[in-house]
Amino acid sequence: MKLSQKHIRKLVRDSKNHSCEPTSCCVQLVAIADLPSQFGEFQICGFVSPCDGKEHTAIIKGNILDKESVVMRLHSECLTGDVMGSRRCDCRDQLLESLKYIEAESQGILLYLRQEGRGIGLSEKIRAYAIQDLGVDTVDANLILGYQPDERDYGVAAHILRTLRIKSIRLLTNNPEKIEQLAKHGVNVVERLPLIIEPTEYNRAYLETKTERSGHLLGDFAGIRDVDEIQSLSKRSKDAK
Fold first, then answer.
1. pTM listed for this prediction
2. What are the E-state strand segments in 77-140?
3. In this predicted structure, what is the pLDDT of residue 22?
4. Quick one: DSSP state of residue 236?
5. How does pLDDT run across 177-232, given as a tens digit for each residue?
6. Scanning 8, 92, 127, 141, which has its CA 20 to 30 A from the CA of 62?
7. Rounded to an integer, what is the distance from CA 129 to the centroid of its chain?
8. Cα–chain-centroid distance for residue 109?
9. Domain range summary for the chain, segments of one domain joined by +
10. How many CA atoms lie within 13 A of 240 on its CB side?
11. How many Å apart are CA 211 and CA 127, to the nearest integer?
12. Are 111 and 84 within 8 A, CB to CB?
């Protein structure tokens, strides 16, 4: 069962009338519409951040309001991969596999955040690609350009989940940092669901760098599946505040 028009009207109204801390970059829900796709029947939510003008979307399956243990994919925009089918990364494959997984579960959410190039923007990502073409890995390319290896912020994701009244999630990810970052923003992650994509000749080195230098869990057994380990990660993040 999808969100009803009654649910949608209330969510949009509540989002419009809410207020955030002055120091936070909030998001406002502007509309929810049907999104039939090759993977199934979804609804798409449009959000805007008044502080920076960025637009984000949430693709939802079923009525996820006030639900526990909702399957979620937190996906950052990748024009080259998601749209152009670049083989330099595994972004498009992860995006499509996540939608298939959510459809099979009959309930879930995919957040699509405008954080191109791990937060450095499209043009800067292409500059980083040019540096990588000279034999530099993805981490050092960002550092050479004066950025952190990952500039993304997941406060917006946490805000969207609160707007949609999701109580806890099962996160489709290979990146433990996402769990820690979401926990810092008050999101209850109860399980990590691995999202392993078979490497190709074009992205094998990229994936190896993600494993060796960024801590991604890409092995056959892919690390954190145990709820106690997830809670331990979340506790460490909260204690570090």
1. 0.83
2. 108-113
3. 58
4. H
5. 888 889 999 999 999 998 877 777 766 766 677 666 656 665 543 333 344 444 45
6. 92
7. 22
8. 10
9. 5-115+152-239
10. 12
11. 23
12. no
* Average pLDDT of the residues in 141-149: 92
Q: Is 150 a catalytic residue?
A: yes
The pLDDT of residue 238 is above 50? no
Active-site residue among 150, 204, 220, 239? Answer: 150
Q: For this structure, is 92 an active site residue?
A: no
- pLDDT of 129 reads 92
Beta bridge partners of residue 35, listed in sequence order: 42
| pLDDT for the residue 21 | 66
Active-site residue among 73, 92, 118, 152?
Answer: 152
Q: Between β-strands 28-37 and 70-76, what pairing exists: parallel, antiparallel or unpaired?
A: unpaired
Q: Backbone phi, then psi, for 171, in 5-degree steps?
A: -95, 125
CATH 3.90.70.10 fits 5-115+152-239, yes or no: no
Q: Where are the beta strands (DSSP E) in 98-156?
A: 108-113
Minimal CA–CA distance to 73: which of 189, 183, 214?
Answer: 189
Residue 131, C-beta contacts closer than 8 angstroms, at least 6 positions apart: 140, 141, 144, 145
183 touches 152 (CB < 8 A)? no
Phi, psi angles (nearest 5°) of residue 106? 70, 5
